[in-house]
Write a structure and sequence with these properties.
By secondary structure, this protein is α/β, with parallel strands linked by helices. 21% of the residues lie in helices and 24% in strands. The chain has one domain: 3-Layer(aba) Sandwich (Stationary-phase Survival Protein Sure Homolog, Chain: A). The chain has helices spanning 94-103, 151-163, 183-186, 188-198, 218-232, 299-304, 320-329, and strands at residues 40-41, 72-73, 79-80, 82-86, 108-114, 133-136, 143-147, 169-176, 203-208, 241-246, 256-259, 265-275, 281-291, 307-313. α1 (94-103) crosses α5 and α2 crosses α4.
Length: 332
């Protein structure tokens, strides 16, 4: 998630003065290459998500990770997909528990998640300290490991040391708090999904616009099953990444899903300056979210209007329009 929270403090209200990120204020329109408004998607997608928007509690004693079979067979010989589940809020967060509950009958689910909150870590990896894995019994009937590293570390270790193969799908979340618009840059949740796609694993990051540890995930679980069900129906682009955000509403008030683009928005930030008991200064990051994009095809618009937003994203950050202009105008 964007520079947001930790499980114990900020999800309960950021008593220390940190900003809660997830609201949206209307600002000026932005010329960011708006596309036409997409169709509403209710119970099934109206687009092929296999290629949409994608460019070419305490651990037990440490054990040696066991290999997960490449595929398990259901009666009738049907392969069962291997689904890796991770997050940035920590292995004991309510969001990941709800994600596991939503999909545990849809494949062979294995959880590898941080042993503590890692919000706002972005795509950080651990290079100066050893990484540790401990198996935990937190999910009924589901193999789970906690990792001392970042969300991206979790994906890397899961593939190399636990699964000993690439899973068929990686799911990250369900994050406590928004990961729409610019949040995707800072988000540990989305960085885990991006890392999976870099490793040729189709992935989805899920986020709920509610920071509370008592957040209601019932509607989110329903839409997780719809999205994962659609993805598992066909052959997926190996670099597929979807950024999915759920409004904090009961299911009856959610209008459906929209395939969107990322809104042009940012945080107007400020640092609260305080003094510790010794008189030394310290700072708390605060600020407000400002949406400069009036487009009706953005993730922020969809969420403000009671839709689940689905944004296809990619790790190729090349600006191809500018590249073409520079090739024509620069004398190289």
């Amino acid at each position: 998630m964007a520079k947001k929270k930790n499980t114990n403090e900020s999800k309960a209200g950021k008593a220390g003065g940190r900003v809660k990120r997830g609201g949206a204020a209307t600002g000026k329109a932005s010329k960011t290459g708006a596309i036409s408004e997409t169709d509403t998607v209710n119970l099934t997608f109206k687009t092929d998500l296999s290629t949409a928007g994608v460019a070419s509690a305490a651990g037990k004693a440490e054990k040696s990770p066991k290999k997960v079979p490449a595929a398990r067979l259901k009666p009738g010989g049907k392969n069962v997909p291997v689904i890796l589940v991770t997050n940035d809020d920590g292995v004991s967060a309510p969001g990941i528990r709800n994600l596991v509950e939503a999909v545990k009958d849809m494949g062979k689910v294995v959880v590898v998640a941080p042993d503590k909150p890692q919000s706002g870590m972005g795509h950080a990896i651990t290079i100066g300290n050893p990484l540790r894995l401990h198996q935990v019994q937190l999910f009924d009937g589901v193999e789970a490991w906690q990792c001392s590293g970042t969300p991206v570390d979790c994906v890397k270790l899961a593939v190399d040391k636990i699964l000993h193969r690439k899973p068929d799908l990686c799911l990250s979340g369900i994050n406590h708090g928004a990961n729409h618009s610019i949040n995707v840059i800072y988000s540990g949740t989305m960085s885990a999904a991006v890392e999976a796609a870099i490793e040729s694993i189709p992935s989805v990051g899920f986020s709920l616009l509610d920071y509370s540890v008592e957040a209601d995930f019932s509607a989110a679980r329903k839409y997780v099953r719809i999205i994962v069900g659609n993805l598992l129906k066909g052959t997926l682009d190996k670099h597929l990444i979807l950024n999915v955000n759920f409004p904090a509403l009961p299911d009856a008030l959610i209008k459906g899903m929209k395939i969107c683009r990322q809104a042009y928005a940012k945080y107007e930030e400020d640092f609260l300056e305080r003094n510790d008991p010794t008189g030394k200064k310290y700072y708390w990051l605060t600020g407000k979210f400002v949406n400069f994009d009036k487009g009706r095809d953005t993730d922020v618009w969809a969420l403000e209007n009671n839709y689940v937003s689905v944004v296809p994203v990619q790790f190729d950050m090349t600006n191809y329009v500018l590249k073409g202009k520079l090739e024509k105008t620069w004398k190289l």
